[in-house]
Write the structure tokens for this entry.
Amino acid sequence: MIELGREKRQALHELCAGSDQVLAWAAVEGGMGRVWVPELKNPSFCLILLGDFVYLFGITPKGQQSMDLRTQLYMECQEAFIFPSDSLWELWLEENFPGQYRQLSRYAMRKDRNNFCDETLKTYASDIPEGIRIKAIDKSLYLQALKEDWSRDFCSNFESPEEFEKRGLGFVALDGRKLVSGCSAYGASDGSMEIQVETRKEYRRKGLALACSARFILTCMEKGVYPDWDAANLQSVGLAEKLGYIFDREYQVYQLHREDESREMA
């Protein structure tokens, strides 16, 4: 497998045509994440890795190319969420990783700019406990977010504070100087951002994620950028619906794990 640098990813537009996956396009258009192909000229498929998300596009491989892709996935994508682009890729994953994968549900929200109510979002954004401040992520907060596991994904897919300032967006809740909640761009493509929401455990159920998310959505709308929300669980679906999103569908993704882990789960 050949890894493509940022300047060589234009060839993947045709392979990804028809996909609405923001993070896949963030890698193809904006150079985020990592991308592999079997050959440089007219690749028949591609593997995209951005953060904890993996995308497979193109024609499912056979023979040596299939073995190479299997090795690449096993080496680089343990515990990542794998999004096969069609049923043939699902079959390929199941045949190549018997006993080494689990299927997980995720929940897609409808992509519709017309469902958000500015007044409702402004109310959520201002309804915060006394002593809490909502602030846009700047260089200092970018570096602060990276220091802790719970908050690092607010910024971790952007290579520098300057890149985040140029291409990303985020808001965090602060209790004094302590970062306690936030909503940020996990990835950004042309015209869209994928939302990442997290709250420090002891600060949950205080409306902080709701307030940060409302600020994020309002700012995206002002900039003409769509804030894409793909939920990992039903709690996330509920938060999204409160903000104005409409549930679309439940779907399945794959997650690889090692054979010894599979035995322990059995």
